Automatic annotation (TrEMBL):
One annotated GO molecular function: oxidoreductase activity
Domain of life the protein comes from: Bacteria
Name of the protein: Peroxiredoxin
Range of residues in the leader sequence: none
Pfam families attached to this UniProt entry: AhpC-TSA
Lineage: Bacteria, Bacillati, Bacillota, Clostridia, Halanaerobiales
Annotated ranges, domain Thioredoxin: 58-195
SUPFAM superfamilies, per the entry: Thioredoxin-like (SSF52833)
Species whose genome carries this gene: Orenia metallireducens
């Protein structure tokens, strides 16, 4: 075997090791990103809260950033329109399999709790007519806002979809769920928030 062939094999093996390391690290990070993030304001220190903001974009206890988007009826809706109620703000897209899988549970939760806990879907980057058709075909009736230019998703650092923000009546983020939320998790979070 020539020196040139040996060098080429070493370079290829080095690249494979680096790629394997990146894939291993990414899988570990994704597992952590689907867990709940919760903050006990009396126990956590400011530096710990700051590190969560650095990692996730917005921290537990932060005020949810104000925005306005059109709904499927063309009305201009502001986040502050929901102040005074519990709010589940869910970032999603029609092409996203986990988003589609959680939608029946979100819709059922909406129907059961709409007087005290509002579910609002924020569709990221899709055409109004396609989203409207998707919602009608699925029989989903919770409010949908259209983030056509993805600016609100960017503001909320919703780089993984689905991502759900659970916001209290004062407008503070109380839970963040990255990845699909289940019916049991919805009930557990609602119970916790309502009993504080």
């Amino acid at each position: 075997m020539s020196k040139r062939s040996l060098k080429m094999i070493i370079v290829i093996l080095s690249i494979l090791v680096v790629i394997s390391g990146v894939m291993f690290y990414s899988q570990g990070a994704n597992k952590d990103s689907t867990k709940f993030i919760q903050k006990d304001f009396k126990v956590k220190e400011e530096s710990e809260a700051k590190s969560k903001v650095d990692v996730y974009g917005l921290g537990i206890g932060d005020y949810a950033p104000e925005f306005n988007l059109d709904n499927l009826e063309g009305e201009d809706i502001h986040l502050s329109d929901y102040q005074g109620k519990y709010l589940l703000l869910n970032f999603w897209a029609t092409w996203c399999p986990p988003c589609r899988k959680e939608m029946p549970d979100l819709n059922q939760f909406h129907q059961k709790n709409k007087d005290e806990f509002v579910v609002v879907g924020v569709n990221i980057g899709e055409d109004k007519e396609n989203v409207k058709k998707f919602m009608e075909t699925g029989g989903y009736d919770y409010p949908i806002l259209l983030d056509r230019d993805r600016q609100v998703a960017f503001l909320y650092r919703a780089s993984v979809i689905p991502t759900s923000y659970f916001i209290d009546p004062e407008g503070r983020i109380q839970y963040i769920k990255r990845g699909m939320v289940t019916k049991d998790e919805l009930e557990e979070i609602k119970e916790d928030l309502m009993n504080r």
